[in-house]
Write a structure and sequence with these properties.
Blueprint (H helix, E strand, L loop, with lengths): L4 H19 L6 H26 L5 H24 L8 H23 L8 H23 L5 H38 L1
Helix pairs in contact: 1-2, 1-3, 2-3, 2-5, 3-4, 3-5, 4-6, 5-6
Length: about 190
C-alpha cells in the first residue's frame, strides 16, 4: 500500500517541503508566488489523498499515520520559515508558537489515546482552526508580491491570531478529553 495513489499524494506533501523552502530564495516576486503555489498544491493533495483512499477503498494504517504527520511537518516548516524571512514578526510570533505547541500536544495525546484504543475525532471548531491557519499561511506566503495592492501580510497576521485563538480553544477541548481518559485509566489500575 506504500505506493497507492493516496499514499503517494500524502508523501508528496513531505517531499515538497524542501522545494517550497528553497523557493523563498528565488528572485523578486517568485519568492512569494512559487512557495504559495507549492503550498496550495500541497493543500489540494491533502483533500484528494483522503477522498481517493475512501473512494477506492485504499485506506491504510500507513495513510492514517502519514496524513497528519505530513500536515504538521508542512505547517511547522512554513511557520518557521516565515519567521526566518521576517514575514511573521513581533506579536504575531505568539500565535505561531501556540500553533506549533498545540500540534505537538495533540500528537502526543493522540499517541497516548491510541494505546487506550480511544479515538480523538476532529471537531468542527478544529476544522475552522485549520481553515484560518491555512488562509493565514497563504496570505503570509504570497503577501510581499501583492503588498502594493493591499496589506496581505496584515491580513495573514490577523488570520494567524484567529487561528491561534481557535488553537487554544480546540487544544483545551482535546486536553480535557485526554485528561478524562487518563484519569479513568489511572482509576481502573487502582
Amino acid at each position: 500500500m506504500l505506493f497507492s495513489l493516496p499514499n503517494i499524494l500524502t508523501l508528496s506533501r513531505i517531499v515538497v517541503i524542501p522545494a517550497l523552502l528553497a523557493a523563498f530564495y528565488l528572485p523578486g516576486d517568485a519568492s512569494s508566488w512559487v512557495p504559495l503555489g507549492l503550498f496550495i498544491a500541497a493543500g489540494i493533495t491533502d483533500f484528494f489523498d483522503g477522498y481517493l483512499a475512501r473512494r477506492n477503498r485504499q485506506t491504510s494504517n500507513l495513510g492514517r499515520f502519514l496524513d497528519p504527520v505530513a500536515d504538521k511537518l508542512l505547517v511547522a516548516a512554513v511557520l518557521l520559515f516565515l519567521v526566518g524571512v521576517d514575514r511573521i514578526h513581533s506579536w504575531a510570533l505568539i500565535p505561531a508558537v501556540i500553533i506549533l505547541c498545540r500540534e505537538i500536544m495533540v500528537s502526543g495525546l493522540r499517541e497516548f489515546l491510541a494505546e487506550l484504543r480511544v479515538g480523538m475525532p476532529v471537531s468542527r471548531l478544529a476544522k475552522w482552526k485549520t481553515a484560518s491557519q491555512i488562509l493565514a499561511l497563504c496570505f503570509l506566503l504570497g503577501g510581499p508580491a501583492v503588498q502594493q495592492d493591499f496589506d496581505a501580510l496584515l491580513i495573514g497576521e490577523v488570520l494567524l491570531w484567529i487561528a491561534g485563538l481557535l488553537t487554544v480553544w480546540t487544544g483545551y477541548d482535546y486536553l480535557n478529553l485526554g485528561l478524562k481518559h487518563m484519569i479513568e485509566q489511572d482509576e481502573a489500575v487502582r
